Amino acid sequence: MKIRRILAGLGVLFLSSSMTLGMTAFEIMQKVDDRETGETQISTATMTLIDKKDRKRVRKLKLFSKKFEDVDKSISFFISPTDVKDTSFLSYDWNDEQKEDDSWLYLPAMQQVNRTAAGDKSNSWMGSDFTFSDVEGAEVNEYSYKILSESDPVDGHDCWKIEAIPKSKEVIKKTGYLKTVNWIRKDAFLIVRGINYVKKGKRVKYYSTKNIKQINGIWTIGTIQMVTTKNKKVQHSSIFRLEDVSYNNDVSDQMFEVETMQRGF
After folding, report:
1. How many CB atoms sit inside 10 A of residue 79's CB?
2. Fewer Cβ atoms within 10 A, N terminus or C terminus of the chain?
3. Rounded CA separation 68/131 (Å)
4. DSSP character for 128?
């Protein structure tokens, strides 16, 4: 259940309905995490940031991801506007759950690459409603799961409604979330809706998706929205739109090195 993988596109599992009957909440979330997402992905994206006065800021990005033998790597380059142009973010999602994932942020104004802190990734990612933890993802085994509903449709598609609660205070500190409720689309094992209960500030964040389709046989979410509320009032929201998505292209291994962050794509 990784936002980073959501940003990179979500995969399809060709399972009959009979094969999914009687699955536990953990087994369902493991299927979500294990879905096919292609060996590589290239896309452009538009991220729109909207404040409580409905003022908008629009940012353009270029995204690359690639699977390696023991790690999934992704890198994002900001193309515009000028205040964030050439900023880049690199993430390593190690297959070994005992190994802490790695990530780096390059800020051109400072002319340096900074490694993000492993213990606390609850801060906003590039001024959006997504956190560094949302983008990098969290391990499935770090949570306890409970099926709240076996059938709760979203946009006409049958879904499981599943609650995820962190197993430790360390996970809460790292993600910033006390618990999450997800709606999992049964035909594609996609997280299509979510509610995140934030530890600080008594805030609640609502995640939703639109424009879901298959590209080269891979389920891909076209639009993702995260809305931050406090006392049931909207404080801020972010809309992330994927464009020109392509899978299984030839992407150089060198694309995912720290040195590339300053050099650009």
Report:
1. 17
2. C
3. 25
4. S
